[in-house]
Amino acid sequence: MKTGTKIGLGALALAIGTTVVWFRMTGTVGLPDSRAAFVVAWVAAACLGVFAYIKGTSIVGAVPPALGVLISSFLLYTVYISPQVLDTTASIKVGDTIPQFTAPDGRGETFDSSALNGHLVLIKFFRAHW
Amino acid sequence: MQVVTVSTDWPEEIAAERHLHGLQARMLSDPKLVVTDAFGLRNTAVHSAPPGDDTEALPVPATLLLDKNGKVLWMDISEDYQRRSDPSVVLAAMQQHFDPLQPGSANP
User: Fold this and answer.
1) How many CB atoms sit inside 10 A of residue B97's CB?
2) Which residues partner with A125 through β-bridges?
3) ipTM of the predicted assembly exceeds 0.85
4) Backbone torsions φ then ψ of A63, nearest 5 degrees
5) Helix, strand, or coil (residue B11)
6) Over the stretch B63-78, which tens digit does the pLDDT of each residue have?
7) Do residue B15 and residue A79 have CB atoms under 8 angstroms apart?
């Protein structure tokens, strides 16, 4: 096996391993405040992938480093775009009363926020199911 | 206590996915961000979306606790969508803010 092919397999293993840990922690709302370790691991995996080509791979051996670079780059991109920007002059604050609203629910019924009057309420905004 | 969720999912997506959550919550559909904008919780930064999704923007993940008159008692806004409201933080906030309002509470 060519040296580059071995390095490429290492790059892919590092990229996949880091990604699996990432999604396990995400699933349990367990991501640490600092994601530096993940970023370092993905950057390393991407660099290893490129290094594999410099060293030279077989034709089949060119696939793992490409996947490693792709996976790592994508996850790094999601970290890069993750900060939120909120217009805090417009956002609701503690002490405010919520606006009245209506919205369809998953059963095709229209929900009216006046139904919340007289109840303690937890409202959760999230992005979507994915 | 009432639990309500708001997301950009269409009603059909909520119907298809709600079993995943196992929630007895009213899950509301807000793909055009009408409710999100009423609360001022639109994320104006670049956002990721699945391929083919035409959602123009996304809400900032947020959790709000309301009293019986609809006043916000507590809220938690994620600065980063990869960091959600920690369930233990929400539970502690519920104990702090809701328990004193519940008749017969052990924590008056």
Assistant:
1) 17
2) B6, B62
3) no
4) -70, -50
5) helix
6) 999 999 999 999 988 6
7) no
Q: Which residues does chain A have within 8 Å of residue B101's beta carbon, measured at their own beta carbons?
A: 120
* Whether pTM exceeds 0.80: no
**Among the listed residues B65, B63, B77, the one whose alpha carbon sits nearest the alpha carbon of residue B102:** B65
Residue type, B51: P
Q: Do B55 and A128 touch (CB under 8 A)?
A: yes
A-chain residues within 8 Å CB-CB of B1?
119-122
The CA-to-CA distance between both ends of chain B, in Å, stands at 17
* CA-based torsion, B43, B45, B50, B52: positive or negative: positive
Specify the 3-state DSSP secondary structure of A38: helix
- Cβ–Cβ < 8 Å for B4, A123: yes
Interface A:B, Cβ pairs < 8 A: 202
Q: Is B94:B107 a contact under the CB 8 Å cutoff? A: no
